[in-house]
């Protein structure tokens, strides 16, 4: 079984982001970029399926600026077999990404596409669902467990108030939640091996997709600053303050 894993290059989750002075977005100049953490989980899951003999080939796809090739290299070092970079300086929104993935799926014929449940930069949580809709494929989103059984799979989903298990027929779209697995670190020998793995380079036009943004960002603002806390001298003072000053927000 062939698996496609889309991996997005995002601001590293440890970075405290700064809003640009003109409120048009986040300042990414000189900021550390990494693979979206949910996509690391997606690669890990695909590699485990390969180690079990279920997957035969894993293709890591990244769309965006030329440096997305580094994100693909990380995926290759973790165990993906080859990469596809769709290079574009445009603001690639979920619908455009999903449309390009659809064309790649039609070209590559995978049985499974494993995406992150959301990208931590825009928090859209939309690309996997849009891809499933465009392809007319089954989908198991927010997966915390995945089991391939014959021509189907079961996906345990993290939903409000518990876990839901759905049974799907392949081909399918799966999106990963945090508890699905713990991604491995790439070993030095695997980082070296990854340098030799192929990365195909394309442009959105090669896939015949118009990536013009459909959404306009009006303004990006910092969240309001938290007010300093207060220290109280006794339980009685705390209770009194709770009675007279505390408000339900
Ligand atoms: P989103 O819908 O933007 O929250 O992203 C959900 C998932 O779609 C991500 O975790 C990735 O697996 C995939 N994805 C979104 N944008 C891109 C991109 N530019 N390149 C590769 N994969 C992407």
Produce the secondary structure layout.
Blueprint: E1 2-6, E2 9-11, E3 33-35, H1 37-51, E4 57-64, H2 68-78, E5 82-87, H3 94-108, E6 112-116, H4 127-135, E7 138-149, E8 152-159, E9 162-169, E10 172-176, H5 188-194, E11 199-202, H6 235-244
Parallel strand pairs: 1-4, 1-6, 4-5, 5-11, 6-10, 7-10
Antiparallel strand pairs: 2-3, 7-8, 8-9
The chain binds adenosine monophosphate.
Adenosine monophosphate binds next to helix 1, strand 4, helix 3, strand 6 and helix 4.
Explain what you see.
Helix 2 (68-78) links the parallel strand 4 and strand 5 (82-87). This protein has a single domain (2-246), classed as HUPs (Rossmann fold). The protein has helices spanning 37-51, 68-78, 94-108, 127-135, 188-194, 235-244, and strands at 2-6, 9-11, 33-35, 57-64, 82-87, 112-116, 138-149, 152-159, 162-169, 172-176, 199-202. The longest helix is centred in the first third of the chain and has 15 residues, at 37-51. The strands form two sheets. The chain has a nine-stranded mixed beta sheet, sandwiched between helices. 27% of the residues lie in helices and 27% in strands. The mean pLDDT is 96. The chain is an alpha/beta fold. Helix 2 (68-78) packs across helix 5 (188-194) and helix 3 (94-108) crosses helix 4. The radius of gyration is 21 Å and the shape is globular. It contains six helices and eleven strands. Adenosine monophosphate binds next to helix 1, strand 4, helix 3, strand 6 and helix 4.
């Amino acid at each position: 079984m062939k698996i496609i894993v889309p991996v997005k290059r995002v601001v590293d989750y440890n970075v405290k982001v700064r809003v640009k002075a003109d409120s048009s977005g986040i300042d990414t100049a000189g900021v550390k970029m990494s693979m979206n953490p949910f996509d690391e989980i997606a690669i890990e899951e695909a590699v485990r399926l390969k180690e079990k003999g279920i997957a035969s080939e894993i293709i890591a796809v990244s769309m965006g600026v030329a440096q997305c090739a580094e994100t693909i290299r990380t995926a290759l070092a973790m165990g993906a077999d080859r990469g596809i970079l769709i290079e574009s300086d445009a603001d690639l929104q979920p619908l455009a990404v999903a449309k390009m993935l659809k064309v790649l799926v039609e070209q590559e014929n995978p049985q499974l596409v494993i995406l992150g449940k959301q990208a931590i930069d825009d928090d859209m949580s939309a690309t996997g669902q849009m891809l499933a809709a465009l392809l007319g494929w089954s989908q198991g989103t927010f997966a915390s467990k995945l089991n391939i059984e014959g021509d189907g799979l079961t996906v345990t989903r993290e939903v409000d108030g518990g876990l839901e298990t759905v049974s799907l027929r392949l081909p399918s779209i799966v999106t990963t939640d945090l508890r699905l697995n713990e991604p491995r670190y790439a070993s030095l020998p695997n980082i070296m091996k990854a340098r030799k793995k192929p990365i195909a380079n394309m442009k959105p036009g090669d896939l015949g997709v118009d990536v013009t943004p459909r959404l306009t960002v009006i303004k990006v603002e910092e969240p309001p600053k938290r007010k300093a806390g207060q220290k109280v001298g006794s339980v009685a003072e705390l209770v009194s303050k709770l009675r007279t000053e505390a408000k339900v927000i």
